[in-house]
Amino acid sequence: MPHIKPDYLEPQHGTGYHGSFIGTAVGAIAANDIVQAMGYTGDKISFRTADANVAGRHLGMLGVADHAAATGAPIRVVSHKLVTGVNTSASSGVGYPVYLSDTPGGWGTSAGTASMVIGNVLEDHAATGAVLLAPAHSVGVE
User: Fold this and answer.
1) What pTM was estimated for this model as a whole?
2) What is the pLDDT of residues 62-95, one digit of tens each?
């Protein structure tokens, strides 16, 4: 087997593949949804949408769905992800927090019931806004 030098490996910019998991979707999951590890089947972790206003749905290991997945389908979950082309005009500006939403899998610039910060605003704009989602670095409290 040939040796591949690290000098030739390029990471995917803006996406946390170094901290990614390939798991199984429990329920339909959309791209960029915030998801929670909630069990496993065989050697695959099961992921469901996180939710700030449902008991226990914001606790434990969280990540970002890298793509959409139907119930039972494989899904890649990353530790952080740059999301562009979103409306961030309701935020107070660049650097302000992005919160886990009361909508399953959702996130936004206003706090949900659990008031859990999962990222921050990188570009404040109504059409071309950008956020860095990093829920793996957050800690949910009950």
Assistant:
1) 0.84
2) 999 999 999 999 999 998 899 999 998 888 889 8
Q: Residues 35, 37, 42, CA angle at the centre, nearest 5°?
A: 130
Count of Cβ atoms closer than 10 Å to residue 67 Cβ: 14
Give the C-alpha separation, 106 to 109, whole Å: 11
Counting Cα atoms < 13 Å in the Cβ hemisphere of 41 gives 10
Look at residue 41 in the predicted model and tell me its pLDDT.
83
Distance CA 36, CA 97 (A): 20
Q: Is 68 exposed, middle or buried (0-12, 13-18, 19+ CB in 10 A)?
A: middle
